[in-house]
Amino acid sequence: MDKTERVEEIRRRLQLALQPVQLDVIDESHLHAGHAGALTGKGHFAVQIVSPQFAGKTPLARHRMVYAALGEMMDEDIHALSISANTP
Asked: So what family is this one in (predicted)?
């Protein structure tokens, strides 16, 4: 999967699972060139997501919801993920 496909797949999975009212997925892999994790071919991403489903959830629970939505991508395609998860 190339970088563009990864961003689109991340976006698709998060939209499907969390129905966000705002979603930005940023590929930051270029900022980590030469980093040990970059050698695996996995990417570095930042996600800014706003979803009503986060209401009443702790920050840790919100992050777990994002990880669950991404599933095996966390093992196979994503080396690092920065998450900003908020309610509307």
From this structure: Belongs to the BolA/IbaG family.
